[in-house]
């Protein structure tokens, strides 16, 4: 049967069917725009990035999916980190300094992503699966042309007034315009799987995420529905290179480096493949241009230690939708609107990144293991963990104080501090490309 060729026109083309893309598409449709959304795969599709933040909840309300998320998710009241007594220290979101909700959810990403995509379609978005955008020509407002093909090989040309690149790690425009750059400040790789029979935290904390440190990285325990626990280790690339294809044995051996993690897995049974990712920290030199904007992982991805990926993707998707709508209404203001958007997104990512780059350092481990609320600094850190990194001056002031405390503790132990900085910089140059699955939150 001969393949068909079709051309369609729209106000906005959104490339990507993850949280960032579906968020942008739905908000644009709420404005009354004609939106086409193209996703290269078919939902449900496996992804990690299962832990959400309290700051996601206002976005869910605005999208109209709050009850759908609640039906899919496990209630998450906080996060716990190792404490100095060998136990753990829980940071409850109810103690946040800002106005974020006191809880979040853990979700199976394949269910969550499908729900958001279907909600976009129900909202009136022309959302299509199994349609891969192969090339795009962003010529400015009203001059975007994209070329795509569906699973049957049928060609589709989309002529749009604006392009939202939410293509995740595919970084459609980042690759096309040669903007993508490895993150020179931080690199890591991950190995992970799903298990049943893993011990949860007691009582109301059963849905909390647990974070562990070990010499070569950190580990997550994320409770999901149906008794499943997502467990993964984010490692320095040099360490993960040692696995030589023995994925399950390597994951279990790595978990054995953390006594409490091992104890919680005494009755565990693996119920998924063991997956591995290669280096995945990168940034594109630009996130916007005439007639186009990037959201979520299409622009940048950083280590997921604070579960920021889905929130940053959805937040940037919401902000991008508002910016695009305003630019379509007043094209002469596009550059100023884009600059404001970019400044905001970079600021939030910068806050998370500062903590992420230093998380495995001896100084940061010490501060998280024995937190103090002097000048309400601990509450400010909890606000960061909740995703409050954009609009609260009181939170920002406490985070600046935390940075000063971090520096003071580091100066008091200069040998350890300098050694950690040197090692972090060395590891950032190590390449690891042995992954077998993507880590895509956008």
Would you kindly provide a written description of the structure presented here, covering whatever features stand out?
The chain is of the alpha+beta class and 442 residues long. Helices cover 37% and strands 24% of the residues. Helix 1 (19-30) packs parallel to helix 4 and helix 9 runs antiparallel to helix 10 (334-358). The protein is globular.
Q: Notable features of this structure?
A:
single chain; 442 residues; alpha+beta; 8-stranded mixed sheet; 14 helices
Portion in helices: 25-40%
Number of helices: 14
β-strand number: 21
Low-confidence stretches: 438-442
- Assembly form of the protein: single chain
Shape: globular
Q: Report on the biggest sheet.
A: 8 strands, mixed
Strand coverage percent: 15-25%
- Give Rg in angstroms: 22 Å
Instruction: Determine the mean pLDDT.
Output: 92
The SS-based structural class is: alpha+beta
Distance N to C terminus:
35 Å
């Amino acid at each position: 049967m001969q393949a068909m060729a079709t051309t369609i026109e729209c106000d906005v083309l959104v490339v990507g069917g993850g949280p960032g893309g579906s968020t942008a598409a739905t908000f644009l449709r709420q404005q009354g725009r004609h939106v086409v959304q193209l996703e290269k795969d078919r939902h449900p599709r496996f992804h990690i990035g299962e832990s959400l933040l309290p700051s996601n909840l206002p976005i869910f309300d605005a999208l109209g999916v709050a009850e759908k998320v609640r039906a899919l998710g496990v209630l998450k009241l906080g996060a716990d980190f190792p404490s100095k007594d060998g136990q753990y220290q829980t940071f409850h979101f109810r103690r946040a300094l800002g106005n974020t909700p006191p809880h979040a959810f853990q979700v199976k990403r394949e269910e969550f992503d499908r729900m958001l995509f279907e909600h976009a379609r129900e909202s009136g978005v022309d959302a299509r699966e199994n349609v891969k955008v192969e090339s795009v020509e962003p010529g400015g407002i009203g001059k975007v042309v994209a070329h795509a093909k569906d699973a049957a090989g049928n060609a589709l040309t989309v002529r749009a007034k604006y392009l939202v690149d939410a293509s995740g790690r595919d970084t459609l425009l980042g690759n096309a315009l040669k903007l993508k750059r490895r993150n020179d400040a931080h690199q890591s790789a991950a190995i992970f799987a799903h298990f049943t029979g893993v011990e949860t935290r007691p009582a109301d904390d059963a849905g909390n995420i647990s974070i562990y440190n070990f010499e070569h990285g950190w580990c997550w325990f994320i409770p999901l529905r149906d008794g499943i626990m997502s467990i993964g280790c984010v490692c320095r690339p040099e360490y993960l290179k040692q696995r030589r294809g023995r994925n399950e044995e390597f994951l279990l051996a790595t978990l054995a480096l953390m006594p409490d993690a091992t104890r919680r897995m005494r009755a565990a049974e693996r119920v998924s493949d063991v997956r591995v990712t290669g280096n995945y920290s990168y940034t594109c030199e630009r996130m916007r241009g005439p007639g186009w904007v990037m959201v979520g992982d299409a622009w940048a991805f950083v280590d997921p230690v604070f579960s920021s990926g889905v929130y940053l993707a959805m937040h940037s998707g919401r902000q991008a939708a508002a910016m695009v709508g305003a630019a379509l209404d007043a094209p002469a203001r596009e550059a100023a609107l884009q600059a404001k958007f970019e400044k905001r997104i970079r600021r939030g990512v910068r806050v998370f990144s500062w903590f992420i780059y230093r998380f495995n350092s001896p100084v940061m481990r010490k501060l998280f293991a024995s937190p103090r609320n002097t000048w309400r600094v601990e509450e400010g850190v909890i606000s960061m963990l909740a995703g409050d990194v954009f609009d609260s001056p009181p939170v920002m002031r406490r985070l600046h104080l935390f940075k000063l405390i971090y520096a003071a503790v580091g100066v008091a132990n200069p040998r350890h501090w300098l050694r950690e900085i040197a090692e972090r910089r060395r590891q950032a140059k190590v390449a690891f490309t042995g992954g077998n699955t993507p880590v895509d939150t956008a």
